[in-house]
Request: fold
Amino acid sequence: MSFLDQFGYFFQSLGTLVINPTAMALLFGSVFMGIIFGAMPGLTATLGVALLTTLTYGMSFNLALIALLGVYVGGVYGGSYASILLNIPGTAASAATALDGYPLAKQGKGGIALGLTTTASTIGTIIGMMFVVALAPMISNIARQFTSFEFFLLAFFGIIISGTLTSPDLVIKGWIAGFIGLFLAVIGRDSLFFYPRFTFGLAELDGGLDIVPVLIGAFGIPQIIQVIRDNMKSDDTQKLDRIVPEWRAVGRNIPTIIRSSLIGVGIGAVPGIGEDIAGWVSYGTAKNSSKHPETFGKGELTGVIASETANNACIGGAMIPLLSLGVPGSPPAAMLLGAFMLHGVQPGPMLNIDQPGFVLQLSAILLLASIAMYILGILLAKQVVKILKIPTSIFMPVIAVLCILGSYALSLRVFNLYLMVIVGLVTFFLTEMKYPVAPLVIGVILGPMADQNLRRALLVSQGSLAPIFQRPVTLILFIVIVMTVLSQTKIYKIAMARLKGKFTR
Amino acid sequence: MENKTTNRESDFITSLILFAFGAWIIGNALQMPLTGSLTGVTNYWYTSPALLPLFIGSMLMILSLGLFSIAIKAGALRSLVSRFGTITLKISPLNVRVVITMAYIVGFVYFYVPYIDFFLNIVFFLSVFMISFYFENRELLYRTALFVLVGTLVFGILIFSGLGEGLTSVFRYSLDVLQLLHIVILGLFTRRFLLNDPGAKKRQKLVWSIAILIPLVLIPIFRFGLRVPLPYEGGIIQLLNVIVRSLR
Reply:
């Protein structure tokens, strides 16, 4: 498609959606649901997407896409409510927002803070969407030159980088989580010889583990247990006046917005690391580049803008590798990948060939979702705050029921419920021991891609690993993986410290 | 600092478990065909179904050794040995909440969902959960958990011994009736327990309203809207079926 054709198709998709009342009602409804999921401590955008995957399975793919993207966009933004009003991040993505959002709320400026986060999130989503339109087709074109070695190393890179960057304790734990996820992915009959692997003679495991119950188990069950254990209370919120979109503050912070958007998109494009890292990195960068860093943490508007712009721009960033390579850029994107596959859409380099215009259609939905998020955020913030006051001991059991229904409804197998509970309990213990969940999920999602491509690659090269060093992309990926692993070793750190010392003398 | 020590102690133990897990994966993978002919097709090591499992098992063993060495260097073994005689099972209120929550979820999914009417199961699950945690009364939490444990054991014996099948052959919805009785007894017990709590009456109404309203909303959406057959459709769902058919 030429540039003008793409432009025309984008606005045609936009127009088709706007004049469709069902689509618009679904969009606003799902964005609102996403905001609730994001706002409630203990619920996440990923869980919202996971639960909605089941509910939207019977819908047409276009309507399902609207609902899922709406929940994703609303969920990432919604975390700012609890961050600002309760000083409890609604989602990990909004953790940095609490640092300046809550002090603002304590100063009686909760309405200004929420108005800022609403505006910043909208701008961040739109900028992220623009990068999707610009970069995804370009990367797809490059990826069509990839062979099986590239795809295997890409999958492996996704697991390693996700483990490296998301581990709250030791990096080695992130890698272990990734390999546990890979193990879960190999359960079932292999695709080449149909040989049963780790099925223990159970027919239910022959087809492998279903993605949705595994993801619901990994994200839902540990959250339910943790929230009930910690007995989180959301009833002492700060007072909220009128939501005021502070356009002057936005205007003064244009450089911050542009920088934060770039950070969000860049971090989102790296497999598996997601919105929480984007928020923190952007906040830290804004603080370090500020002329008055001492004001951060005391109600600095720039801090709120930086965090929220980045975490919403990350949505677009996460879509880029998802659409162009079939590698999710964040945990909610991993859930979206599962939903796409359920609807028979295979993201990856062939997406633009098999479904031309899909990227533009998705971008149109992202644009409308960000507008819906803005409207709902400004108009319905007080209603969301009322919902925040529902005790966790009331809504968490309801979420548990939704998790059970969500895991069962897709394949109608009670076995999936057993699986969800086992995965959930194991993940709970792993998170208690400071193992990250994201690499485990990435391992489960990318495992089949890694397995098939590794064996296919070696079949073509007749067992030789030489092509890794003969092809530029595989060589780069290989070097990056090796450097990422080596950078965590003591020898490397000592060597780097000595090198740094030589240059600074 | 104490948190870090506790982390390393648990890392020491988990590294051993993970090492064993990696070894188990390799053991299983070595039983898969590595060479020769498989389903009439020549199999090489690089196309073997064992390839990725061997890689995963090896990596888990190597990484667990790394974790083990970090834990040892941080003094985890010394710390565990020094506390060996004094280790007591910490039953803090938080741990109790964790165990009870897990028990409710496991019991619900493994003992109730496949065998009893799903509507009644949701009512039971929601009411048990909310009664245990919403009233913030430790005595009520323990008693409710005990009540649920006893009830689950009874149902477990009925179901897994085959007695349940016998009962359902006599009357199809006998397990549903037992579950309904279970719920009613829970309600009466809670009411009696909280008789002297003036604010509890309103809360109990809220709990039971939510416990009944949620399945009344969800089940029609899934069963009749999305046309998803539910895990077990007993008396109540069949009744809803009859009502919906007569309305159509």
About this structure: The mean pLDDT of chain B is 89. Chain B has ten helices and two strands.
